[in-house]
Write a structure and sequence with these properties.
Chain lengths: 385, 385
């Protein structure tokens, strides 16, 4: 396999872009990434997106968006893996370059959620679960996570404020990210006073609904090295799945897809969790982030919430996490999130993270999830040279 | 790049499977392909599908179907390229094996169209075009093809019976394919007497609406050779796009994505159109098949209809085409079609095509399209050893 690097990144601000179409959001991010890479043309495009068929009644995003960025003719496809669509698109782009088929590849993630009402988006999110068996029970996606949250608290005696602490960390970090959806700090009291959405999950423990697009330019590491330390190596790119539905799993409190994807990625990159300098975890809900930290090997089973509440994930902590806001505060435009995460790790490794820069960051990890850890995608990135 | 081979194929009959879910259709085809390959486990799954979000309100087919076939844990994703979703899924599987990341990969295409009424499917098909600009004019997908059909007839003086001849060829070949949706022959008079759907396209010039799933097992050619002549090499796998909307194209009568994908594939495989022994073209409408034959280089510009009507594509003709029924008679379960096509070429090259066997077939080509040639996928397959 050829080694692969990221040589350009670009994104829109996450927010409620009422006046901008999905196509225009994507194009803005893609052109920014191409400009950042200093190239004008790619050979292939992989678009991560979950909702376009349901929300915009628009499929065929590969050809549509290749055309929109002025590159009709190139190879293109849409890649979907629920909330992990962005991550699987990065993986597809990685394989395309690693294979030797293409030298320059654009990966983008885009989602425009505000074209539907919130109630319909709640329905749409359940497309990540088994519609025939679980969707028809009437349970919502946040409801499934609430079951896990409750079980975790009961099993390990984790306190509400320990689990909720991850949302506070996200908001504190988003203050300095101009692309974040919610650029304001949040106190733990405010989280714990916020209304229940699905008991015991509270409003400020849930990511919001937002629109956004993020994009990366990939090429072989050999070619990227000409760009010196602007290029970031993809040291590992892995995808794993888990039994889809919670009721069929052996242990509801193990993120097995995350565990599998992470262990394989550590093996490929030749690193351990201790070697990671900066981390992006998929915390669509606070409990998701906690179990992700355990699955990735940063905290022991049952100790994730305590790990967070003790400050280990803050900018000055043991493993700075979601340094530009995470899903809670940067935002979670579903199919774009996995690409935003990789982009933010790239910013840290380049030294471009502004006030939230982790000095000397050499190795970063981005963790994206589809469903309740039914698909998990891990990317380990490394500074070059 | 590693060379890649197909070592197993499986499919369901195309039809109106009212009593079978999308998941069960996929599983039937996937297990048949695994059994045919003689293996029990793969490392990755790529699912081609266009409509599941819109029709079944079900996304996340990668994880869902990995689970359904008893392989939770493996890497998985859904790949979408409108009516070319099956083809881009095969391409994704090809890259995954060629890269060296995975040895054994399952590719599947699945579509369950009968879960919606015909009118809604007409709407769904327009998701292949630009919804914001073209969808809102009210034109249907068959309407777009009708514009091209009319222009082709006017420009080249092609007669209705010349263009319609491709449907007759499909039906004649489907008679001996137990997996075909319409297993009966069709006379040219019957086509020309059938009702107009979108003038000048008649009912029997359009593929029907159907459900189906097809599946392939891929592995490195080196490993496949142990299976002797059961293995078929993927000598080339290419994807190209075109300007999405007809009104923005320089020449409506050139399938430019097909031309680009085919020329690249011929170059990679080191073959010319004359070397191809058996061909599958994407003839969603008769005019689509005609323009595909020109784009692929089998007929000159403006001569495709004449080429067909002179019998060149029949089983005993110059280039036997759609030997097991094509889109018109085998059927066109959207996201599955590109996989059915590759499977049928494999059957011919293996000598497994029954009464429609093309003796001594060594090299075959499968051509799949999304939109009105907005995405085109070409696979060139070759007998091993």
């Amino acid at each position: 396999m050829r080694k692969v690097a990221i040589i350009g990144v670009g994104c829109t601000k996450v927010g409620e872009h009422w006046g901008t179409s999905l196509r225009d959001l994507f194009t803005e991010a893609a052109l920014a990434a191409l400009s950042d890479a200093g190239i004008e043309k790619v050979e292939a495009l992989y678009v991560g997106n979950m909702f376009s068929g349901y929300v915009q009644e628009q499929e065929h995003l590969g050809a549509l968006l290749a055309d929109s960025i002025g590159m009709p003719g190139i190879s293109a496809a849409k890649i979907e893996g629920a909330c992990g669509s962005g991550g699987v698109a990065v993986h597809a782009g990685y394989l395309a370059v690693a294979s030797g088929m293409f030298d320059y590849v654009l990966v983008g993630g885009v989602e425009k959620m505000t074209d539907l009402s919130t109630g319909h988006i709640t329905t749409a999110l359940m497309m990540a679960e088994n519609r025939d068996y679980i969707g028809f029970t009437g349970v919502t996606f946040v409801g499934l996570n609430a079951l896990i949250h409750r079980l975790y608290s009961k099993t390990y005696g984790a306190k509400p404020e320990e689990i909720a602490a991850i949302a506070v960390n996200d908001h504190n970090n988003a203050v300095n990210n101009p692309c974040a959806q919610y650029q304001y700090p949040l106190k733990i009291e405010r989280v714990l006073e916020s209304p229940l959405v699905a008991d015991p999950i509270r409003l400020f423990e849930c990511c919001g609904i937002g629109d956004g697009a993020a994009s990366l330019v990939l090429c072989p590491l050999e070619k990227a090295k000409a760009l010196a330390d602007r290029a970031i190596e993809i040291a590992a790119s892995t995808v794993a799945t888990n039994v889809l539905s919670l009721n069929e799993r052996d242990d509801l409190l193990v993120f097995d897809a995350t565990r599998k994807a992470a262990n394989r990625a550590y093996e490929i990159a030749g690193v351990k969790p201790d070697d990671i300098d900066v981390l992006e975890v998929h915390d669509a809900f606070t409990i998701t982030g906690v179990l992700a930290l355990e699955g990735l090997g940063f905290a022991k089973k049952g100790e994730g919430a305590k790990f967070v509440s003790e400050g280990n994930i803050s900018l000055g902590g043991k493993i700075p996490t979601n340094t530009l806001g995470g899903l809670k505060a940067r935002g979670h435009p579903i199919g774009a999130t996995g690409v935003y995460q990789v982009l933010e790790v790239v910013k840290q490794l380049r030294g471009d993270a502004g006030k939230n820069q982790i000095n000397g960051a050499e190795i970063g990890l981005a963790h994206n999830v589809g469903g309740v850890d039914s698909t998990s995608i891990v990317h380990i990135l490394r500074r070059c040279g």
